[in-house]
Design brief:
By secondary structure, this protein is mainly alpha-helical. It has helices at about 10-35, 40-50, 60-65, 70-85, 105-125, 130-155, and strands at about 60, 85-90, 95-105. The protein has a 3-stranded antiparallel beta sheet with strand order 1-3-2.
């Protein structure tokens, strides 16, 4: 059913309510995914940030800022991720006092194995939208993500 235009009517409050439901369900899913991987939700979030960086190592300070935890807390997170075989530490070539965090490929695959079936279902759902609708959804997710990050920084500090 690609590109169906048969969409329910929705008001802004209804859309926000549906978004809240999605976020709540996603938070529960993240907790369950983390538990199944032997991680805490915060540890999984930090590992996801390492994965998003791809081949570029991430500093512990960057992880702390993105996860909104202290540098002391991120040390414990990186320690747990390293003990669990999720990441390795590498010295920063430009500053020997800093450490860069890199994903272990086998651990990255374990996480992909958990998420790929869900992402396949999402891809099927996206296939029911026209390319123009997917573009609007992508724009909305991108802009809403930036708005959420800015609001988080403003209301909760760095």
């Amino acid at each position: 059913m690609e590109g169906s235009t048969d969409r329910p009517d929705a008001s802004v409050p209804a859309a926000i309510g549906a978004m809240d439901d999605l976020i709540a369900t996603s938070m529960v899913a993240q907790q369950e995914f983390a538990k199944n991987l032997g991680l805490s939700p915060t540890d999984l979030i930090c590992f996801a940030y390492v994965l998003q960086a791809g081949d570029a190592p991430v500093s512990a300070g960057d992880l702390a800022a993105r996860a909104h935890v202290t540098t002391g807390a991120v040390t414990g997170i990186v320690n747990r991720l390293e003990r669990g075989g999720y990441v390795t530490r590498q010295p920063d070539p430009s500053d020997g006092r800093r450490v860069r965090v890199v994903a272990v490929p086998e651990a990255a695959q374990r996480v992909r194995d958990v998420y790929e079936p869900y992402y396949a279902l999402l891809a099927q759902l996206f296939a029911t939208y026209s390319p123009q609708e997917v573009a609007v959804l992508n724009d909305w997710f991108t802009r809403a993500g930036a708005l959420a990050a800015a609001y988080l920084a403003e209301s909760c500090g760095p």
